[in-house]
UniProtKB/TrEMBL annotation:
Cellular localization per UniProt: Plastid, Chloroplast
GO cellular component: chloroplast stroma
UniProt keywords, alphabetically: Chloroplast, NAD, Oxidoreductase, Plastid, Transit peptide
Transmembrane parts of this sequence: none
Pfam families tied to this protein: 2-Hacid_dh, 2-Hacid_dh_C, ACT, PGDH_inter
Statement: the UniProt record of this protein carries the keyword Lipid metabolism: no
Catalytically driven reaction(s): (2R)-3-phosphoglycerate + NAD(+) = 3-phosphooxypyruvate + NADH + H(+)
Recorded family membership: Belongs to the D-isomer specific 2-hydroxyacid dehydrogenase family.
GO MF, any single term: NAD binding
PROSITE patterns: ACT, D_2_HYDROXYACID_DH_1, D_2_HYDROXYACID_DH_2, D_2_HYDROXYACID_DH_3
Protein name as it appears in the record: phosphoglycerate dehydrogenase
Organism name: Populus tomentosa
């Protein structure tokens, strides 16, 4: 536990008031109080900074997820924060967990002061998180993409069937009938009571008593008739059948395909529109993938399951409603923003859309006088798609695992703004990830002057076809290696591409398809930097670029080529590269200088063109040698150039 002494001058005697900007989980010990000043007390306080990260949970999260978070972090459950409160708290948090009710805006990232490392969305839709701002601030965004799929699909089906059979309207109608009876009878009972209490004029009271009962009975009679004939509205709520009808599933992803599967079970004919869905997945459950126009113009029911993006925003508008079959029925369990809500009201009024069942709205909660919500042909629920006990426990665990993993620096399988790869592939690629970063680091340190790097070519040699080798992660790590040694920018998987672009660094990728078994994901990776000069001339390839190449051996990164020189060096610690004339005694001379300087050598290897010709000595060192030590090595007559590189 780190401790930090500082001085505060509270203007009020209350020290805790002044220290409230610190995390509630930070322990503050006041150790000494000194003399009064004009402004108040001068106090020495010792603040014990808890080394555990702090996770702010801003919306209700399942207990199992909270327990998991608590094993690794301090958990601050502060629900219902307004935006300003969130912005104030965020600079004390390493991670933030939200559901759909919290807007994680650019301001949140800006005011985190760089501390926020991960935002966890306990659910699927990340339209409430400003992803560009997160990426620019190097903050990873992870979600829980699978645990609420079934809940959302079941809710979609619940709304579909409830809408077709007017369940919600009929239920409300019966209940409003009963309550109107209650309210109609109540005043007469009250009146009767008042008359009794008045006392005195007995005759008069009895007269009133009779009158009162007569009125009460007639009202009761009218009400019962109304309930039976009026609010027991069997003919008003005649529904429509689902069997044999066409359902268009718009967005054939996880939820959409589960809805389709269930709708098939109800005997519906299911078509789907999704520009990115694989046709074979649709075929496997007996669904035809069709164009947007065909889907909306042939469907009796339309169920929406695409994400809200700039491309899908208000894609259901006056124009698309006009192409629909008259009397179509629409279910939306995706996002309110995919529908132009005013256009939907117009379509409902004109009868183009017979009914809509909506779980989501452009503004949540919708305004109390929302014409859409109040429309008699609209059934609504308050964004309940993911709200089952099971789904909430599931998303809580899914997001907590992702957040803890991200805080530990592990690669996230549910990252939204960084390369996302399945866990098995991540584990297979892990040593190549390290190799990539080290190659980038090494290459950029070989550039004379360091900056000015603009054009980098990365070559991946593999027996695997492009579809079996996702290189985004490797590219991001090479970028990290290239940028970090020459800047103060912290690069991670999230902001690598963005930072490269911002610095005008163009990274092109090339693949060499090797023959043989694709057991290993990669044979070697090569990084070339064009249009620069090197501080170590040997690093230049024949075609004039700085070139380094590496392989993974025993899951460890190895440098195997510098320029055109073959070497074999484990890429650990730091390296001294030394170009020399190959002659006896070189290893000893260099080794003894380093020994005298108390620099521990982890390995030495010499690669040469031919005996007594040019050679490259690669020396792994545990400590950084002093400038004097490097100068002494450089002064050995056979040594032609030398460079020290931190990996
Ligand atoms: N109401 C609720 O409580 C819940 C709502 N959702 C929402 O449901 C939606 C779907 O979730 P998942 O199926 O888990 O996501 P997903 O990512 O598995 O599926 C979305 C599908 O939409 C497709 N798509 C993208 N652009 C499209 C376009 N222009 N037209 C048609 N399809 C398009 C994608 O290709 C993808 O297949 C999301 O918006 C999510 O936020 C999810 C869970 C609960
Ligand atoms: O997962 C989603 O996309 C949802 O819409 C669920 O939202 P919620 O977590 O219930 O606020």
């Amino acid at each position: 536990m780190a401790s930090w002494n500082f001085m505060v001058t509270p203007t009020k005697p209350s020290l805790s008031w002044k220290l409230s900007f610190l995390s509630p989980l930070t322990t503050v010990n006041v150790t000494r109080r000194q003399n009064r000043t004009a402004k108040g007390f001068v106090v020495f306080a010792t603040v014990f900074l808890d080394p555990k990260p702090t996770v702010l949970v801003a919306e209700k999260l399942g207990e199992a997820g909270l327990e998991l978070l608590k094993t690794f972090a301090n958990v601050d459950c502060s629900y219902n924060l307004d935006h300003e409160e969130l912005c104030t708290k965020i600079s004390l948090c390493d991670a933030l967990i939200v559901r759909s009710g919290t807007k994680v805006t650019r301001e949140v990232f800006e005011r985190s002061g760089g501390r926020l490392k991960v935002v966890g969305r306990a659910g699927v839709g990340i339209d409430n998180v400003d992803l560009s701002a997160a990426t620019e601030h190097g903050c990873l965004v992870v979600n829980a993409p699978t645990a609420n799929t079934i809940a959302a699909a079941e809710h979609g089906i619940a709304l579909l069937t409830a809408m077709a059979r007017n369940i919600a309207q009929a239920d409300a109608s019966i209940k409003s009938g009963l309550s109107s009876l209650f309210f109609m009878v109540m005043p007469f009972l009250m009146l009767q009571l008042v008359i009794y209490r008045a006392g005195g004029l007995l005759y008069c009271c009895e007269l009133n008593f009779v009158l009162c009962y007569a009125l009460q009975f007639s009202v009761q009679y009218v009400s019962v008739v109304m309930i039976n004939k009026g609010k027991w509205q069997r003919s008003k709520y005649v529904g429509v059948s689902l069997v044999g009808k066409t359902l268009a599933v718009m967005g054939f992803g996880k939820v959409g395909s589960e809805v389709a599967r269930r709708a098939k079970g109800l005997g519906m004919h299911v078509i789907a529109h999704d520009p990115y869905a694989p046709a074979d997945r649709a075929r496997a459950i007996g669904v035809d993938l069709v164009s947007f126009e065909e889907a909306i113009s042939t469907a009796d029911f339309i169920s929406l399951h695409m994400p809200l993006t700039p491309a899908t925003s208000k894609m259901f508008n006056d124009e698309s409603f006009s192409q629909m079959k008259k009397g179509v029925r629409i279910v939306n369990v995706a996002r309110g923003g995919v529908i132009d809500e005013e256009a939907l009201v117009r379509a409902l009024d004109s009868g183009t859309v017979a009914q809509a069942a909506l779980d989501v709205f452009t503004e949540e909660p919708p305004s109390k006088d929302s014409k859409l919500v109040l429309h008699e042909n609209v059934t609504v629920t308050p964004h309940l798609g993911a709200s089952t006990t099971e789904a909430q426990e599931g998303v809580a665990i899914e997001v907590a695992e992702a957040v803890v993993g991200a805080l530990k620096g592990q690669l996230a399988a549910t990252a939204v703004n960084a390369p996302m790869l399945p866990a098995a592939i991540l584990s297979e690629l892990a040593p190549f990830v390290t190799l990539s970063e080290k190659l980038g680091r090494l290459a950029v340190q070989l550039v004379a002057g360091g900056s000015g790097v603009q054009s980098v070519k990365v070559t991946y040699a593999s027996a695997r076809g492009p579809d079996d080798l996702d290189t985004r992660l490797l590219r991001a790590m090479i970028t990290k290696g290239l940028i970090e040694p020459i800047s103060s920018v912290f690069i991670n998987l999230v902001n690598a591409d963005f930072s490269a672009k911002q610095r005008g660094l163009r990274i092109t990728e090339e693949r060499i398809l090797l023959e043989g078994s694709p057991e290993n994901p990669l044979e070697f990776i090569q990084v070339q930097i064009a249009n620069v000069e090197s501080k170590f001339s040997i690093a230049m390839s024949d075609s004039g670029e700085i070139k380094v190449e590496g392989r993974v051996k025993d899951r460890k990164p190895h440098l195997t080529k510098i320029g055109s020189f073959g070497v074999d060096v484990s890429m650990e610690g730091s390296l001294i590269l030394c170009r020399q004339v190959d002659q006896p005694g070189m290893v000893g001379s260099v080794g003894s200088i380093l020994g005298e300087e108390n620099v521990n050598v982890s390995f030495m290897s010499v690669g040469r063109i031919a005996p007594r010709k040019q050679a490259v000595m690669t020396i792994g060192v545990d400590e950084e040698p002093s400038k004097e030590a490097l100068k002494r090595i450089e002064e050995i007559p056979a040594v032609e150039e030398i460079v020290f590189l931190k990996l």
